[in-house]
């Protein structure tokens, strides 16, 4: 499952947006990847997300493969676009 979104200003509403994003991704069993501009990283990797350089206005594709892939993509998408935490 894959979804493309435009990243909102996640730093504005989260004290540590990168760590919170990784923690959110780690709640899911599925393998989750974020891709943009030829870079593809594991959403559960803190160092990977830091190096990825997420920023407001960036268009990213979120993909997941596994038993809870739809919920994972929906949740990460919600986090990146509306700065909200998803309910699991």
From TrEMBL:
Location of the HPr domain: 1-88
UniProt xrefs under Pfam families: PTS-HPr
Originating species: Lachnospira intestinalis
Superkingdom of the source species: Bacteria
Name of the protein in its database record: Phosphocarrier protein HPr
This protein's record includes keyword Transport: yes
InterPro entries xrefs: HPr, HPr-like, HPr-like_sf
Swiss-Prot/TrEMBL keywords: Sugar transport, Transport
Keyword Thylakoid: no
Signal peptide bounds: none
Record's function text: General (non sugar-specific) component of the phosphoenolpyruvate-dependent sugar phosphotransferase system (sugar PTS). This major carbohydrate active-transport system catalyzes the phosphorylation of incoming sugar substrates concomitantly with their translocation across the cell membrane. The phosphoryl group from phosphoenolpyruvate (PEP) is transferred to the phosphoryl carrier protein HPr by enzyme I. Phospho-HPr then transfers it to the PTS EIIA domain.
């Amino acid at each position: 499952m894959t979804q493309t979104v435009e990243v909102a200003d996640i730093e504005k509403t989260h004290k540590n947006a990168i760590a919170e994003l990784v923690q959110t991704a780690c709640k899911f069993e599925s393998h989750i990847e974020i891709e943009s501009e030829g870079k593809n990283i594991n959403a559960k990797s803190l160092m990977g997300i830091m190096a990825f350089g997420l920023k407001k206005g960036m268009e990213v594709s979120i993909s997941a493969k596994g038993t809870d892939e739809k919920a994972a993509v929906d949740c990460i998408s919600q986090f990146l676009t509306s700065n909200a935490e998803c309910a699991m």
